[in-house]
């Protein structure tokens, strides 16, 4: 059977001075730090390639921050960015709002807290995992067609869809405490496929040196 690795790359830091939950809103660009993160990731993949790895296929969410994160890697590896809407950010009722205790106490939001295990305020975790893993399997297939056994694909996506996909791949329950997600800015969640089956999951942070002081916004 063929072994292919699909790296799920979270985008870099976003310029978000108002601290809103930007979700699927357009035109949220990377910050200066976020652009530096994207360059560090590109350097990471260039080093892997120089060591004999074969990153041959690059996919990104249609959102601006994902496309901008993918661009340095595309340039470094000479790859086209393929846009895949299946790996977009999760839907969220609170999109565009500042999510704080004062906002959450408003009665108009209460119906969205009926089932936090789904969650009822946004796209179901299961739906996110399904679309992400479907896209990952398609990326695996395309990478194998291009690079053969040992090829690698890169998918630039968003924290919650990546985390949902990882927990599903590891056979864990999908509902969780958002504070415990292991999916920092510009991190890699790497899925190793043997044929169409995921046989290993690894996590790394190529831009870890830039994480201290980076902005964090409540996720979906």
From TrEMBL:
GO MF annotation, one: phosphatase activity
Cross-referenced PANTHER family: BROAD-SPECIFICITY PHOSPHATASE YOR283W-RELATED, PHOSPHOGLYCERATE MUTASE
UniProt superkingdom: Bacteria
Lineage of the species this protein comes from: Bacteria, Bacillati, Actinomycetota, Actinomycetes, Micrococcales
A Pfam family hit: His_Phos_1
GO annotation, cellular component aspect: cytoplasm
InterPro entries: His_Pase_superF_clade-1 (IPR013078), His_PPase_superfam (IPR029033), PGM_Phosphatase (IPR050275)
The protein, known as: Fructose-2,6-bisphosphatase
């Amino acid at each position: 059977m063929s072994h292919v690795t699909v790296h799920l790359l979270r985008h870099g830091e976003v310029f978000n001075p108002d601290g809103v939950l930007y979700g699927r809103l357009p035109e949220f660009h990377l910050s200066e730090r976020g652009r530096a993160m994207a360059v560090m990731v590109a350097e990471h993949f260039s080093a892997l390639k120089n060591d004999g790895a074969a990153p041959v296929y690059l996919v990104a969410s249609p959102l601006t921050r994902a496309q901008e994160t993918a661009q340095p890697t595309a340039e470094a590896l000479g790859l086209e960015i393929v846009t895949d809407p299946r790996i977009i950010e999760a839907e969220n009722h609170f999109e565009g709002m500042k999510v704080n205790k004062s906002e959450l106490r408003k009665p108009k939001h209460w119906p969205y807290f009926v089932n936090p295990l789904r969650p009822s305020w946004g796209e179901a975790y299961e739906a996110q995992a399904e679309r992400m893993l479907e896209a990952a399997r398609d990326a695996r297939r395309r990478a194998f067609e291009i690079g053969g056994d040992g090829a690698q694909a890169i998918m630039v996506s968003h924290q919650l869809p990546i985390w949902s996909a990882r927990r599903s791949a590891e056979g864990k329950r999908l509902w969780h405490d958002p504070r415990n997600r292991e999916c920092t800015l510009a991190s890699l969640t790497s899925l190793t496929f043997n044929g169409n089956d995921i046989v290993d999951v690894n996590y790394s942070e190529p831009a870890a040196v830039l994480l201290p002081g980076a902005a964090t916004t409540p996720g979906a």
